[in-house]
Amino acid sequence: MNLLPRSLFIVSPRLGALLATGLLAALAAGCGPRDADQPIIPSTPLRAVDTPPPEYPIEIGCDQIGGKVVLQLTVGPEGKPTKATVLTSSKTQALDDAALKGVQRWRFEAATRNGKPVATDIQVPVTFNAPASRPEHCGPA
Fold it and tell me: pLDDT, tens digit, for every residue of 27-36?
């Protein structure tokens, strides 16, 4: 036999939204007990330190090909790329390969959560412009 009125178990939509918001905030804050002496350490975003443009592949310079590659890049806690995949191809394999190879040299200051470096996924567009003039090694057009 239930001694509590049924209406006590019904949550209004507004109260439900407030409870959900509070629950999400508690989960985001870590929700565990925290010592009063323990400082709150703000998170920091990933920051590029050294990201030189990848080298244009000389083997396609004679064809005056350019293009854009979009990569999915995982930057590890050490600030180095640990994984790179092509999300959007340039439609030229040499450009896609040059982009993948070039970003491996990139260096970042890792993002942090609670003061500790963490892996971060980002999308990176890499644009290759065809040489302004036909390279000399190509010979006459």
Answer: 455 555 556 6
